[in-house]
């Protein structure tokens, strides 16, 4: 493949929030273009006025920017094939539809919805294919006049060839579709609005797209589009070439069902709000149908680009595993240098996430605890609950943690621990030794001995390494919290 010859497109519709299946498609197109030194065209398919929204359009652009999936042509960038929003290209689609009608590649269909439904039902009952039966393919002038005299408004249908269509899918190999399984299809609605079936191939032809990488759910439309590309070449639309197709595997959710927009875990916004790193999320999404190597799950986007080949994509459905996605994200958090980590956490250390007053935040304490927090986080939003003990006047009240840690004898253990903590050097090593010694006096191992101390000081049974946390919190505040816990136990 010649360097720079690749032209791929990512062409979502601006409906609803971006979802992870859409992101996986964008990622594979981006990686393919970057691997081959080619061009990624970002095109917006917004011809459905009833479903498309400007808010969703802005969310798509924002999502691509956040993910770092830069595009070479498209909104905000421009390019030689502008505009890149289909709603701004309607005149061109109408011209092409008229040319297809004139050259006999398309025809007007006057069948009503009721007539179509009745004939489909009859075909099913007879065990025959239930697609369009060609009723209006060869209408006479008299028949057309009669239909129009009834006030019928036609749609425009594309005339499929009466021969099989074979192509080589870059993921699935050679595929053949027979005529009875690919009937004539609509390309323009009765109100004159062009359909996806027309505008998508027309734009691909005009924008000289060389490779179409898209979801498996669109596989059945491919023979129709190939036939349309051939017709477009005949009428001089585009450069006459047909893109190569690669259909990406389904992403499956719970219960062996395809992950849908309605599944909570499919929303990209969820991962942004929880504080996934874009590198971690993209790393995981790339594994849904592809892998860098059999023994390497964690890699950078640069490593993915260097290795990505669409022919390595697996045709089998890929299961979305949230736990694995979180684990990979945690690995990417640990890969950050400490400065990058502290900066990445910053949004979760202020309102509305932070449960402390802005003036209570201590930058020095945060920087001191950050290296210990970095080894424990799965997502960045976890940081708030892990460090709030440093910035609150009193630890959070978590009754479940209190009941779990404060067993019979905890008051005696806490008194001994307080005595030893008050007398030791205020370093993590010395603090640990003090609690170990307190535990030994009461016949407890470290895990049991430190639980009441942790809950007294942080409010929770789990959190960052305890003794490093106490070191940062300081002697005075630590002892005051132990005293408060003893008073509560006594009450």
UniProtKB/TrEMBL annotation:
<feature type="binding site">
    <location>
        <position position="136"/>
    </location>
    <ligand>
        <name>Zn(2+)</name>
    </ligand>
</feature>
<keyword id="KW-0436">Ligase</keyword>
<keyword id="KW-0547">Nucleotide-binding</keyword>
<feature type="domain" description="Glutamyl/glutaminyl-tRNA synthetase class Ib catalytic">
    <location>
        <begin position="6"/>
        <end position="324"/>
    </location>
</feature>
<dbReference type="GO" id="GO:0005829">
    <property type="term" value="C:cytosol"/>
</dbReference>
<feature type="binding site">
    <location>
        <position position="138"/>
    </location>
    <ligand>
        <name>Zn(2+)</name>
    </ligand>
</feature>
<keyword id="KW-0648">Protein biosynthesis</keyword>
<dbReference type="InterPro" id="IPR008925">
    <property type="entry name" value="aa_tRNA-synth_I_cd-bd_sf"/>
</dbReference>
<feature type="binding site">
    <location>
        <position position="109"/>
    </location>
    <ligand>
        <name>Zn(2+)</name>
    </ligand>
</feature>
<keyword id="KW-0479">Metal-binding</keyword>
<dbReference type="GO" id="GO:0006424">
    <property type="term" value="P:glutamyl-tRNA aminoacylation"/>
</dbReference>
<dbReference type="GO" id="GO:0000049">
    <property type="term" value="F:tRNA binding"/>
</dbReference>
<dbReference type="Pfam" id="PF19269">
    <property type="entry name" value="Anticodon_2"/>
</dbReference>
<keyword id="KW-0067">ATP-binding</keyword>
<dbReference type="InterPro" id="IPR014729">
    <property type="entry name" value="Rossmann-like_a/b/a_fold"/>
</dbReference>
<comment type="similarity">
    <text>Belongs to the class-I aminoacyl-tRNA synthetase family. Glutamate--tRNA ligase type 1 subfamily.</text>
</comment>
<dbReference type="InterPro" id="IPR020751">
    <property type="entry name" value="aa-tRNA-synth_I_codon-bd_sub2"/>
</dbReference>
<dbReference type="InterPro" id="IPR004527">
    <property type="entry name" value="Glu-tRNA-ligase_bac/mito"/>
</dbReference>
<feature type="binding site">
    <location>
        <position position="261"/>
    </location>
    <ligand>
        <name>ATP</name>
    </ligand>
</feature>
<comment type="function">
    <text>Catalyzes the attachment of glutamate to tRNA(Glu) in a two-step reaction: glutamate is first activated by ATP to form Glu-AMP and then transferred to the acceptor end of tRNA(Glu).</text>
</comment>
<dbReference type="InterPro" id="IPR033910">
    <property type="entry name" value="GluRS_core"/>
</dbReference>
<dbReference type="GO" id="GO:0008270">
    <property type="term" value="F:zinc ion binding"/>
</dbReference>
<dbReference type="InterPro" id="IPR020058">
    <property type="entry name" value="Glu/Gln-tRNA-synth_Ib_cat-dom"/>
</dbReference>
<protein>
    <recommendedName>
        <fullName>Glutamate--tRNA ligase</fullName>
        <ecNumber>6.1.1.17</ecNumber>
    </recommendedName>
</protein>
<feature type="short sequence motif" description="'HIGH' region">
    <location>
        <begin position="12"/>
        <end position="22"/>
    </location>
</feature>
<dbReference type="InterPro" id="IPR045462">
    <property type="entry name" value="aa-tRNA-synth_I_cd-bd"/>
</dbReference>
<keyword id="KW-0862">Zinc</keyword>
<keyword id="KW-0030">Aminoacyl-tRNA synthetase</keyword>
<feature type="short sequence motif" description="'KMSKS' region">
    <location>
        <begin position="258"/>
        <end position="262"/>
    </location>
</feature>
<dbReference type="GO" id="GO:0005524">
    <property type="term" value="F:ATP binding"/>
</dbReference>
<keyword id="KW-0963">Cytoplasm</keyword>
<feature type="domain" description="Aminoacyl-tRNA synthetase class I anticodon-binding">
    <location>
        <begin position="341"/>
        <end position="486"/>
    </location>
</feature>
<dbReference type="InterPro" id="IPR000924">
    <property type="entry name" value="Glu/Gln-tRNA-synth"/>
</dbReference>
<dbReference type="Pfam" id="PF00749">
    <property type="entry name" value="tRNA-synt_1c"/>
</dbReference>
<feature type="binding site">
    <location>
        <position position="111"/>
    </location>
    <ligand>
        <name>Zn(2+)</name>
    </ligand>
</feature>
<dbReference type="InterPro" id="IPR049940">
    <property type="entry name" value="GluQ/Sye"/>
</dbReference>
<dbReference type="GO" id="GO:0004818">
    <property type="term" value="F:glutamate-tRNA ligase activity"/>
</dbReference>
<comment type="subunit">
    <text>Monomer.</text>
</comment>
